[in-house]
């Protein structure tokens, strides 16, 4: 298959099975500069909405790749930054639904939901997964490091408005960090806001991949289990990807693996599940790519993650 500029994967998703990613903003264009971000430090922190990447080219690539791959479980608007910054987000979602019956998910930090036009753009999506990592202004500044024109109360009101208007599925993601946001009193604040939002699910996460700053440490499984009870019956812990494919191939395309690893660090299992190739074939390919200095490895919580090296 050709190498695509705006479409990546399918990649393994902890929540969505095999997810075909659509990248709508350049690396790393975002409204936040979260300390736990697996993509890295934000280089363009903005709230300006515009057509960051050409809509026509995005849809052209999507049509092409869908002709060559096993249908994914979701087409997911996510990637290298905040997708709601793309001013033609709504047009893209509508066009995708004309191309395919595969459900459309949007992963968003929720920072721009105070804008009516953003809420309107998202209304055609099947699933929206916004984030809520903190329960007050102080931790908002420490953890999410937002654009100066985004206030905590403003962000929360946007979430409340969206959850009251949107007719699709909403899964609220809460990412907790050890010794930063995992104190019971801080978690209680998030949980109280979660009750106001009343999403279909509250998904508790932690930093399992290499983060933007070294002091972003994962919360242990045991600790997550303790904190889960604060969020109530709708909560669930998500800690590992899942595969929805039984058939595994031994055919490996190095460019496909590099495309995944340029987007985010992945474990061997992530790569194998995302590309539907056997673990043995994946291990052999990663070993050869390490030998060729195409990738590097890093140990996090007893798991090796692979990252693509920058092109010289």
Identify the notable features of this structure and list them briefly.
globular, TIM Barrel, alpha/beta, 3-stranded antiparallel beta sheet, 20% strand, 35% helix, Arc Repressor Mutant, subunit A, 2 domains, 312 residues, 10 helices
Layout of strands and helices, then pairs:
Layout (H helix, E strand, L loop, with lengths): L6 E7 L3 E7 L5 E2 L13 E2 L9 H12 L7 E5 L10 H11 L4 E5 L7 H7 L4 E4 L6 H8 L7 H14 L3 E8 L7 H14 L3 E6 L14 H11 L3 E3 L16 H10 L2 E2 H8 L3 H13 L3 E6 L2 E6 L4
Parallel strand pairs: 2-5, 3-4, 5-6, 6-7, 7-8, 8-9, 9-10
Antiparallel strand pairs: 1-2, 11-13, 12-13
Helix pairs in contact: 1-2, 2-3, 9-10
Beta-strand content: 15-25%
Return residue spans where pLDDT drops below 50 for at least 5 consecutive residues. Answer: 241-248
For the largest beta-sheet, the strand count, sense and barrel status come to:
8 strands, mixed
The CATH architecture category of the largest domain equals: Alpha-Beta Barrel
**Radius of gyration using CA atoms only:** 19 Å
The order of strands across the largest sheet is 1-2-5-6-7-8-9-10
The CATH class assignment of the largest domain is Alpha Beta
Q: What general form does the structure show? A: globular
What's the name of the CATH homologous superfamily of the largest domain?
Aldolase class I
Q: What average pLDDT do the residues reach?
A: 88
Give the terminus-to-terminus CA distance.
24 Å
């Amino acid at each position: 298959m050709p190498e695509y500029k705006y479409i990546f994967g399918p990649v393994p998703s902890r929540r969505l099975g095999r997810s075909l990613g659509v990248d709508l903003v350049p690396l790393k264009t975002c409204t936040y500069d979260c300390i736990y971000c697996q993509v890295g430090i934000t280089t363009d922190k903005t709230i300006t909405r515009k057509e960051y990447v050409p809509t026509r080219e995005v849809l052209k690539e999507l049509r092409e790749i869908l002709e060559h791959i096993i249908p994914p479980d979701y087409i997911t608007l996510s990637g290298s930054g905040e997708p709601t910054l793309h001013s033609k987000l709504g047009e893209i979602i509508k066009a995708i639904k004309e191309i395919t019956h595969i459900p459309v998910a949007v992963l968003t930090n929720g920072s721009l939901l105070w804008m009516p036009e953003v809420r309107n753009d998202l209304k055609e999506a099947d699933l929206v997964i916004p984030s809520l990592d903190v329960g007050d202004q102080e931790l908002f500044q420490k953890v999410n490091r937002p654009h100066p024109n985004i206030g905590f109360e403003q962000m929360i009101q946007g979430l409340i408005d969206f959850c009251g208007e949107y007719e699709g599925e909403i899964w609220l993601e809460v990412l907790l960090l050890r010794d930063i946001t995992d104190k019971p009193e801080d978690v209680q604040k998030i949980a109280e806001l979660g009750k106001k939002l009343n999403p279909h699910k509250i998904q508790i996460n932690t930093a399992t991949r290499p983060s933007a700053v070294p002091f972003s440490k994962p919360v242990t499984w045991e600790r997550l289990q303790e904190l889960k009870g604060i969020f109530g019956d709708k909560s669930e812990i998500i800690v590992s990807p899942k595969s929805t494919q039984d058939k595994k191939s031994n055919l490996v395309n190095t460019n496909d693996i590099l495309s995944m690893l340029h987007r985010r660090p992945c474990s061997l299992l992530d790569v194998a599940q995302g590309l539907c190739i056997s673990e043995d074939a994946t291990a052999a390919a990663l070993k050869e790519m390490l030998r060729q200095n195409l990738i590097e490895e890093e140990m996090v919580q007893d798991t090796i993650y692979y990252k693509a090296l920058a092109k010289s």
